[in-house]
Amino acid sequence: MARRRLHNLIFQEADEDFIVRRPRWMKEREDHFNNLDEKDFQIRFRLSKASTLHVLQLIEHKLEFPDNKNSCISPINQLICALRFYATGCMQIAAGDSTGCSTTTAHRIVHRVSAAIAALRPQFVKFPETAPEIWKIQVGFYSIARMPAVIGAIDCGHVKLSKSPGDNGELFRNRKGYFSLNVQAICNSNLEFTDIVARWPGSTHDSHLFNNCVRRAMFEQGKYKDAVLVGDARYACRNYLITPLQVCRSPAEHLYNESQIRTRNPIEQLFGVWKRRFPCMALGLRVDLNNSFAIIIATVVLHNIARQAKEDVPMDDPNVFLPTAWAVLLR
């Protein structure tokens, strides 16, 4: 009798400890590419259908699975999931819900697609090297304010991080008080990135970032001859980097400052257009620090593809919260 009671007690405790697993539920995957018209698609995914197909052709071989087991997600749906992630303030659960996959699947897809797109950087983010390429960019800048020999406008902008990046988190707190990455960019007159450095913490000064980049070493070696960059007062004036005068004492100096500022204006516009096109760059990256670098480069590549296709910045998605004070977040 005692043995039977002990047996029942053991099995009763085992039944109480047994956890019923949630049933596996396959979400319905919508065909956004075919169901949405061009305007609605561009509002929600920040690229036109033509540019999306162009990107898909370049990275499809990296997104395909060897078979169709477990209802695997097609490359076009993976790309659309990542694009939705870039356009919704970095909420992976929202990207997953909109494309019919779980949050963990959306997490893997976003980083997989971001790495594939970031690998296209040498093809779409190119600094001019040959004489015809340099001449074309110099003509573009000269048409703005008649400043000659300008090969690019340089500046830095902050990409917000939604959480502290670990033990050395205070290194990433910028002068505005939030955690960020300080991203250095050089652009042409068409608001296209020609060079990008996205690995320095937010507390890094712009001039320190430039002094330690490869592009400065190339200018020091005289690779670009008499070509120059234009930058703001945060940079030291050099023979290949011209900055505005702090005090103007003659009409000629006032004219120089006006021309320099107008020629530098594309880089100021670029950060605003880039963050407006991909709001996750302004609202904050809610991913691990090591995963954020590929996402930044991927959005830069996509921005250049959109600019080369002459696409305007899409309208804001009404389903995404965008703060009223955009000017605070854009820079």
From TrEMBL:
GO CC aspect terms: cytoplasm; nucleus
Annotated GO MF terms: hydrolase activity; metal ion binding; nuclease activity
Organism: Dendroctonus ponderosae
Location relative to the cell: Cytoplasm; Nucleus
Domain of life: Eukaryota
Domain DDE Tnp4: 154-304
Biological function: Transposase-derived protein that may have nuclease activity. Does not have transposase activity.
UniProt KW Cytoplasm keyword: yes
UniProt keyword list: Cytoplasm, Hydrolase, Metal-binding, Nuclease, Nucleus
UniProt name for this protein: Putative nuclease HARBI1
Primary location class: cytoplasm
UniProt similarity note: Belongs to the HARBI1 family.
UniProt KW Hydrolase keyword: yes
Xref: InterPro entries: HARBI1-like, HARBI1_animal, HARBI1_dom
Cofactor: a divalent metal cation
